TrEMBL record:
<protein>
    <recommendedName>
        <fullName>Carboxylate--amine ligase</fullName>
    </recommendedName>
</protein>
<dbReference type="InterPro" id="IPR038389">
    <property type="entry name" value="PSMG2_sf"/>
</dbReference>
<dbReference type="InterPro" id="IPR008492">
    <property type="entry name" value="Rv2714-like"/>
</dbReference>
<dbReference type="InterPro" id="IPR019151">
    <property type="entry name" value="Proteasome_assmbl_chaperone_2"/>
</dbReference>
<dbReference type="Pfam" id="PF09754">
    <property type="entry name" value="PAC2"/>
</dbReference>
Length: 284
């Protein structure tokens, strides 16, 4: 168990977590944590002992140069940092980890124990999966919770997925068992452009984080990176007739299943989000 020293009493803390690996197509989810750590000026809080959870022949440590001179070993692990939500006194714990190779239940219980010690009552878990989604359309984000009260309050879909899961699913179950209100957000990354980064998916997840926590996140260069990413994929698709035809088929399928009123609702939600985040108040 990680010992937490000199940590002040936190104010209504919430945890946001993402893990590299199976749960992180295009590194879209871990990209959110990295962006928030930088934007919110997060400070290191704790790290789990990598010897307990990682097979270093599978997830190898790396050698880094410090100041271009000193060599340092960086071990794969899960790290936690602490920040304040902008515009409030509320604290946020950010977890950025690598999916462990072994002892998942102990791993999750370690994290749950730390969160309970910190007084965390709400968790937002971020993931990204590969899907038959066209890169030219808004990135679909699925939000779900196994907590019926939270599902009703936030108008989320109940969790209905059945099948293989990663450490994110195990952690969500552990959080729920411990009594934490838990929401999972999954972005759909086009499978034909799976290589990282995936800034458009990262941006979509960040906007959901804004809505869930009712905060405004500085996006920096991310919107332009998302546009540049889409332009780059467009150029690659135009060079391959089969890929271009496949993308058009995905677009037609997506457009055919999206009702006009759903598109209108999406536009209205985006407009309300813009006004709320930029200080415009109630659009009504």
């Amino acid at each position: 168990m990680v010992e937490l020293d000199d940590v002040p009493e936190l104010v209504e803390p919430v945890v946001i977590a993402a893990f590299e690996g199976w749960n992180d197509a295009g590194e879209a989810a871990s990209g959110v944590i990295q962006h928030l750590e930088e934007s919110w000026g997060a400070t290191p809080l704790a790290a789990l002992d990598p010897d307990d959870y990682y097979d270093f022949q599978v997830t190898r440590p790396t050698v880094e140069l410090v100041d271009g001179k000193t060599r340092r070993i960086s071990w794969p692990t899960t790290r936690m940092s602490l920040a304040k939500l902008p515009g409030s006194d509320r604290d946020v714990v950010l977890i950025h980890g690598i999916e462990p190779n072994m002892r998942w239940r102990s791993f999750c219980q370690d994290i749950v124990g730390i969160m309970l010690e910190l007084g965390v009552e709400t968790a937002v878990l971020l993931g990204a999966l590969l899907a038959d989604a066209p890169h030219t359309r808004p990135v679909p984000v699925t939000a779900a919770s196994s907590d019926t009260g939270l599902t009703s309050r936030l108008q989320l879909e109940p969790a209905r997925y059945e099948g293989p899961t990663g450490v994110l699913g195990v952690l969500q179950d552990a959080f729920a068992t411990a009594g934490l209100e838990t929401v999972s957000l999954w972005a759909a990354v086009p499978h034909y452009v799976a290589q990282p980064p995936s800034p458009k998916a990262t941006l979509a997840l960040l906007r959901w984080v804004e809505d869930l926590l009712d905060v405004s996140v500085p996006m920096g260069d991310l919107p332009e990176q998302a546009r540049a990413w889409e332009r780059g994929v467009n150029e690659l698709a135009e060079q391959d007739t089969e890929v271009a035809e496949y993308v058009r088929a995905l677009e037609e399928q997506k457009d055919a299943t999206e009702l006009p009123e759903a598109s209108g609702d999406a536009i209205a939600r985006e407009f309300e989000r813009y006004l709320r985040r930029r200080g415009g108040g109630d659009p009504g």
